[in-house]
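User: Hey, quick favor. My workstation is busy. Could you predict this chain's structure for me?
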Amino acid sequence: MTDLMKFALRRVGQSVAVVWGIITLVFLLRFLTPIDPATLVAPDDATPALIEQIRQDLGLTDPIIVQYFRYLSEVARGDLGFSYGSGVHVNELIVNALPATLELAFASLIFAVIFSIPLGVLSAKRRGTNTDATTNIISLGGLSTPNFWLGIMLILLVPVQLGVLPTGGRVAPTESLLEWTKHMILPTVALGTYFMALLFRMTRNNVIEELNKEYVRAARAKGLPENIITVRYVLQNSMAPVITVAGLQLGLLIGGSVVVEAVFNWPGLGSLFIQALNTADWPIMQGILIVVGIGYVSINILVDILNAKLNPQVNLS
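Assistant: No problem, here it is.
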């Protein structure tokens, strides 16, 4: 078994403990709310006896340790329970909402990568110039601007004032690719601007660090073209930390799109979570938190393995 395989198996083992911790924390959060789930399920004219019967049917009268192990068993089987409000299986609700969230998260990450890396290299190559100052000011603005405020401002400016692009909602790409693109632009920019600024600063700092190393001066002394030095050597050696952060940001984009989805009426996990929060529908909230947590842990594992594969200097022990 190779060192990389051992490293991957060790990371998977560690992640199992992390996922168990996430499930445990999510389970305990339900007991912090004063709302009785039985009252949410019961009809408005339910008698106390009926509410007590519903409480027993839901297993809420069992000791907490019994409820905990029952919940662990259900989650291990992939059963996230039923919505208190609609009675629909939580798995079904999440499966229906997840594609929209993944779509927005990947689009935002691609947007961030496409703009951040070229601008980071350009800024590093022209360090101290007006170009460098301008890109740094833009990145500072991106890091300082809350994505929900940016989303609201984009809606007020582009659809309301200019009459261009829709204010929100989602159209599936299979229905109309043009309409899908129009609906994607504003939420992608709102969600991806912060991460674009973050990746830009990382790329710029890493490229500046690599440009000051001996091998770059040696390559220039040998007469290699500047473009080859930048792309083949400097950029390649600068990308490992950027790839690591970009991968981790994907997990944050999936979990952090709640407010942006609400602003743009995007039918993803964020909107579903807010709806469940408004009605205290704990099975939905618990299911979403578990899915997002497992997704973030899985992405973390893949990023660590990819980083170990690309960067021989990573300590696999």
